[in-house]
Amino acid sequence: MKNQTGMMLIEALVSLVIAAIALLGTVTLMAKSTRSEMESYQRVQALTLVQDMVSRINANRQVAACYSNGATSLSTTSAPLPVCVTGAPTPTANQAATANADLAAWKSALLGSSEVSGSSKVGAMIGAVGCITQVDAANQIYRVSVAWQGLMPTSTPVLTCGQASIPGTNLRRVISVEIQIANLTTT
Q: Measured at the alpha carbon of residue 96, what is the angle toward residues 90 and 98, in degrees to the nearest 5?
């Protein structure tokens, strides 16, 4: 018995070290899981915003050009919205007002107005930027994109939406949809 004095204490310490290493791995796994969950949430929010603007453009298709109107992006900064002015065809006052209201509502959604915590808007992605680009004027093809800042570095997106306002290109995420506005006039 004299030779085994303190052996139980050493076994307990070794067990504690092994348990601590296992717990450290679990904490790291939980942190990665939380980041992945946030990335997924932001991606879903971006998809929702893209689909929302596509629906708005389709609903006001006669003046679809008013939505891009030469502007490259709607950011979450205080930059002014593009205003629907004369285009081809010339918009009616109601169509122009609808396009301007749609752009203002989309910018508000990019700022996170859908969810509020206290006085803070928290329902959007980090640094969200919306872009509506007229890709092909003759065929009425538009690209609706939403860019935001991710949490973990990935490959750099090819699309340029949000490139100026989101630092670190490997943190920028972009989701886009190209739509073609149908010509519903009969000939």
A: 145
Which contacts (CB < 8 Å, 24+ apart) does range 121-124 have? Answer: 123/45, 124/45, 124/49, 124/76, 124/148
Q: What are phi and psi of 175, to 5 degrees?
A: -120, 135
- Supply the range of the domain harboring residue 159: 2-180
What's the CA gap between 106 and 95, in Å, rounded? 16
What is the pTM for the complete model shown?
0.75
Q: Tell me the helix, strand and coil percentages in the chain, rounded to 5.
A: 45, 15, 40
Strands (E), the chain: 74-75, 116-117, 120-121, 129-136, 141-149, 172-180
84 domain-assigned = yes
Query: What are the pLDDT digits (tens) for 116-142?
Result: 667 766 667 888 888 998 888 888 899
Split into its structural domains, the chain has a count of 1
Q: Per the structure block, which two tokens stand in for 72?
A: 């490259």
